[in-house]
Amino acid sequence: MSYRTADSLRSVTLDDVRGARKMLSGVARVTALEGSRYLSRLVGAPVHLKCENLQRTGSFKLRGAYVRIAGLLPEERAAGVVAASAGNHAQGVALASSLLGVHATVFMPQGAPLPKVSATRDYGAEVRLHGQVVDETLAAAEEYAARTGAVFIHPFDHPDVIAGQGTVGLEILEQCPEVRTIVVGMGGGGLAAGIAVAVKALRPDVRIVGVQAEGAACYPPSLAAGRPVSLRNPATMADGIRVGRPGVVPFGIVGELVDEVRTVSEDELSAALLLCLERAKLVVEPAGASPVAALLAAPETFEGPVVAVLSGGNVDPVLMQRVLRHGMAAQGRYLAVRLRLTDRPGALATLLGVLSAADANVLDVSHVRTDPRLGLTEAEVELHLETKGPAHCAELGRALRDAGYPVIA
After folding, report:
1. Peptide bond before residue 204 is cis, with ω within 30 degrees of 0
2. Residue ranges of the ACT domain (predicted)?
3. Is 341 helix (H, G, I), strand (E, B) or coil?
């Protein structure tokens, strides 16, 4: 497809990416490429996971941040840098600035997860909490830059940042020279654009597929319009790709070089994160799991060998707990049922015996005894069960009905 914009600012070239790689030598890790037997069986061809979740700071963001800051003039470094981020970019800027001896101020939303705030401070940045949403935080950072002269480090909309992210593409070609498809998550588009520049220059036959969350998919309407357009309220659990408008620089590159942009649902993201944890033994944040979600959603549409880029692993433990539960529910491994029983001693124990015999694990039980819908001797019970999948859920339903417990809904 071709949606080249009239003004895509300075172009990013293969030489830029190669220069970025030299700059990052000894700074960014060459992250592992791990095979996935489960996904390979599903796709019918080899599938590999590019583990940027194991990069320093827990995501690919260090690459672009370091290249951008290292390219500043001495007087710009002296003025310091400023960034706005809820997590990954904040940590990348913080570590890059510390390594280069540049003072960094990072604005983060007031509700940012505490582990991400603490990590950003530990990497050496001055953290200022401002605003409830990233747009408010971004405005505060831009005002700070205008007032102090600090250089604003954009998370994706700058050629140097894109060149740094493109080093992921060079590594993929070296680690998997036979690759046919690269799948990468997209927010503003910096990582996908960088990978596309590097890969298409060396292997134009490789197909590059970008993946966005359904609730924050700014690229499909932008590509259709031929220019970056804004989403009104981007919403997704995948905060790493929750971006309401493509960057001008990556948009031009994505439109020319990325072959396809797909979207995935919240259920698919949850299932992908769960699969990464259970099958690959990798902690991945929802944004990082988006390529895996696309593979799970339509495995037959990808030509292998496939490389899926796990872009980050900085997931808040509270979110992880919620997402894992959601992912298990999406796979039919949680079951919530409500039913009525006679309110007498031993009634609950009898019910639990039925569930035990059906090999269900009871996670939670709640009673309702005072409700106009209930008879004088009735109680309503809601149970949350851990199951083995959809077939087991159906088996449990039959076991309850056979034992005389009609499920309400």
Report:
1. no
2. 336-409
3. strand
On whether both 136 and 255 belong to a single domain, the answer is no
Q: Say if strands 33-35 and 47-51 run parallel, antiparallel, or are unpaired.
A: antiparallel
State how far the Cα of 119 lies from the Cα of 381, in Å rounded to an integer: 44
Residues 100, 68: Cα–Cα separation, whole Å: 11
User: For residue 110, what pLDDT is reported?
Assistant: 86
CATH of the domain at 202: 3.40.50.1100
Q: Decide the pairing of beta strands 81-84 and 151-152.
A: parallel
Where do the DSSP E strands lie in 36-134? 47-51, 81-84, 104-108, 126-129
- Report how far residue 186's alpha carbon sits from residue 193's, in angstroms, rounded to the nearest whole number: 9
Q: Using an 8 Å Cβ cutoff, are 130 and 107 in contact? A: yes
Determine the longest span between alpha carbons in the chain, in angstroms: 81
pLDDT at 356 over 80: yes
Give the separation between CA 197 and CA 182, rounded to whole angstroms: 13
Number of domains comprising the chain: 3
- Six token digits for residue 316: 């808040």
Same domain, 354 and 365: yes
Residue 128: name the closest of 89, 72, 90 by CA. 90
Q: In what order do the strands lie in the sheet with 151-152?
A: 126-129, 104-108, 81-84, 151-152
Same-domain check for residues 318 and 227: yes
Q: Which residues are catalytic?
A: 61, 311
One domain for residues 114 and 186:
no
Mean pLDDT of the chain: 89
With 80 as the cut, is the pLDDT of residue 402 above it?
A: yes
| Residue 221 forms part of a structural domain | yes
User: Structure pTM?
Assistant: 0.84
Domain termination residue (choose one: 132, 152, 172): 152
Query: Which tokens belong to 267?
Result: 């259920």
Q: Which domain holds residue 265?
A: 14-59+159-327
Tokens representing 391? Answer: 């077939």
Is 4 domain-assigned? no
* pLDDT tier for residue 8 given thresholds of 50, 70 and 90: very low
pLDDT, residue 4, reads 37
215 and 322 in a common domain: yes
User: Do 204 and 96 share a structural domain?
Assistant: no
Q: How confident is the model at residue 5 (pLDDT cuts 50, 70, 90)?
A: very low
Distance CA 68, CA 81 (A): 10
